[in-house]
Design goal:
Keywords: ATP-binding, Nucleotide-binding. GO terms for molecular function: ATP binding; protein kinase activity. This is Protein kinase domain-containing protein. The structure is a single chain. With 177 residues, this protein is an alpha+beta fold. The chain folds into 2 domains: 59 residues, Phosphorylase Kinase, domain 1, CATH 3.30.200; 95 residues, Transferase(Phosphotransferase), domain 1, CATH 1.10.510.10. Helices cover 36% and strands 15% of the residues. It has 5 helices and 6 strands. Helix 3 packs antiparallel against helix 5. It is globular and about 45 Å long.
Length: 177
């Protein structure tokens, strides 16, 4: 976390390591797209730098960290109301990206680690993976909102079950909620 000298906001600086020529193109694309997104449930990109071959992104600081750090801790304090609000916030972010922005935007990396929580536990979706290619993208040549929706379903299941791996296994026939 870094505090800006020009204002009283805290920021997070994400340094991108070992940027290839392809990585540089992806970085520039990411900056151009993400810097224009504005929604209450998206982590805001505040700035960027690619000075002297170092590529960095500056995001708003999320005081309560990632969703997974709360869900999968021994003393999870997320109430059912908070979990509902988190799921609703993620849905609102996806609705904005898929239907209400200039063009359909696919996040491509919906997971609990990318659900960030502010000081009031409002969720904001972060860490877009514009370089990641889902299987259907490789198959069809086009990214699809369907992969985000499927991933949201997995995240919702993890939120409800309070476990990093909610899939049935031979050891367990059910999980007590």
């Amino acid at each position: 976390m870094v505090t800006s000298q020009h204002s009283d906001i805290d920021v997070v600086v994400k340094k991108i390591l070992q940027v290839s020529k392809q990585g540089q193109k992806e970085y520039i694309t990411k900056v151009k797209v993400i810097s224009r997104l504005r929604h209450r449930n998206l982590v805001r990109l505040l700035g960027w730098s690619h000075d002297r071959g170092q590529f960095m992104l500056v995001y708003e600081f999320m005081q309560n960290g990632s969703l997974d750090s709360h869900l999968f801790s021994k003393n999870c304090a997320l109430t059912w109301d908070m979990r509902y609000k988190i799921c609703l916030g993620l849905v609102n972010a996806l609705d904005y990206l898929h239907k209400n922005w200039e063009q359909c935007m696919v996040h491509r990396d919906i997971k609990t680690a990318n659900g960030m929580l502010d000081f009031k536990f409002n969720v904001k979706l972060g860490d877009f993976r514009l370089g990641y290619m889902a299987p259907e993208y490789i198959k069809t040549g086009r990214p699809s909102c369907k992969s985000d929706v499927f991933s949201f379903g997995v995240v919702s299941l993890k939120i409800v079950c309070n476990t990093p791996n909610p899939y049935p296994s031979p050891e367990y026939d059910y999980k007590a909620l």
